[in-house]
Amino acid sequence: MTPPRENHREDVIGRANVEDTPELLAYYDELDTLDTGALWTVANKIEPWEPASQSKPVLWRYNDLRAHVLRSVDLVTPEKAGRRVIYLNNPGRTDVSAAVGWIYAGLQVMHPGEVASAHRHSASAIRFIMEGSGAYTVVDGHKMTLGRNDFVLTPNGTWHEHGVSEDGSPCIWQDGLDIPFVNAMEANFYEVHPDLQQAVTYPVDDMTKTWGNPGLTPGGGDWDKGYSPLFKYEWEPTYDALTKYSAASEPSPFDGTLMEYVNPVTNGPVMQTMGASMQMLAPGQVTKAHRHTGSYLYQVAKGSGYSLINGQRFDWCERDIFCVPSWAWHEHGNTSQTEDACLFCLNDLPVIRALGLYREEAFGDNNGHQIT
Ligand code: 1HN
Asked: Of these four, 28, 92, 358, 362, which has the most CB atoms within 10 Å of its CB?
């Protein structure tokens, strides 16, 4: 797939190429006793020619996971477990419990009438509702009601708790957090709410009603936090926007019709560390392959199709989750000739972009399609 480049050879001039001798090995041992090392022994590893992701491309089929997630209800209580979650453990990232790159994700279940206690931490979260009715989240006193394909932000440092109303049905949602990243930065704090529950101090869904009106911003409304005041992003307006945008524009050859969720105050990402987008693939649409830096976790919000990731094919349907590791070639196809397909994507692009690390490349050969 990736055509080998001439300068990928390890013996190229300017790259470390020192053979072990008894004298050198003894020298390395001496350095080791002083908590030091010779750079040329690790240089090629710590300075790869291009990103070499530890993460594997993985597809998590909802059909396989759903029953296991539901079973946790009989096995543990929210009081004892804190949160009832089955997390996505990428085989290349088990050391940091990540789904891909530095992103954690899990499937959480709650039954009607259940409430999980309030807490806050330095990690930020995006909760995407997969099934059920009556789910809600309270963030710093703002209560958001949540339906299928809606998502809610619980940003860095905000008190948050979740529940499902008595008249609802069992709910399953995807939690996506930047925990591995915040831990890698060694900056994670965690605190339980002193009262275990927080008071709802604003009208229900006030943030959506205030900040979620297209083309309008509240008079005198000020907001200077590092995350979006629009705590909840709803499916209906998202799907409506994609439908209109796709009718008025040519799709990107790589992404189909893609829209990024934004903070309405800055037009930038919804949070400082994690961003989100929704992309629509028209019936029968097949994209060309490209790759870019950043880690991406996809959730199939609607439809069915497939993705080729580094030459491997993954067939997906609604509610499946799959990841595209940094710098992995990927292309998508909608296998339905009548229905569109929508992919929700959680990513670390805000970090990648803010640090000037974004790079993108189109697959040049074979008319832009990977050879499988
Ligand atoms: C968390 O706060 C939630 O609030 C879910 O529901 C999963 C995983 C690790 C750390 C915090 C939640 C989490 C989490």
From this structure: 92
For residue 367, is it within any domain? no
Domain count, the chain: 1
Domain annotation covers residue 354: yes
Ligand 1 neighbours (beta carbon < 6 A): 83, 85, 106, 108, 121, 125, 160, 162, 175, 177, 179
Confidence tier at 8 by pLDDT (50, 70, 90)? low
Indicate the top mutation candidate among 83, 89, 126, 191 to test ligand 1's pocket, ranked by most ligand atoms within 8 A of CB: 83
What separation in Å is there between the alpha carbon of 328 and the centre of ligand 1? 28
Residue 4 pLDDT level (bands cut at 50, 70, 90):
very low
Distance (angstroms) between ligand 1 centre and the Cα of 162 equals 10
- Tell how far the Cα of 173 is from the centroid of ligand 1, in angstroms: 12
Residue-range definition of the domain harbouring residue 302:
59-360
DSSP output for 192-248? E-TTSS----S-TTHHHHHH-STT---TT----SSS-S--EE-HHHHHHHHHHHHHH
pTM for this model (two decimals): 0.95
The reply to whether 53 falls in a domain is no
Check if the beta carbon of residue 313 is closer than 8 Å to that of residue 347.
no
**Residue 236 C-beta-side C-alpha neighbours within 13 Å:** 3
Helix then strand count (H, E) for the chain reads: 8, 22
Q: What is the CATH number of the domain that holds 184?
A: 2.60.120.10
State the residue for tokens 């690790």.
42
Q: What is the number of other CB atoms lying within 10 angstroms of the CB of residue 263? A: 21
State the distance from the centre of ligand 1 to the C-alpha of 311, rounded, in angstroms: 33
Closest ligand 1 atom number to CA of residue 127: 6
Token representation of residue 8: 């990928």
Nearest CA to ligand 1 atom 12: 83
Give a yes or no: residue 174 inside a domain.
yes
Both structure tokens of 350: 């805000």
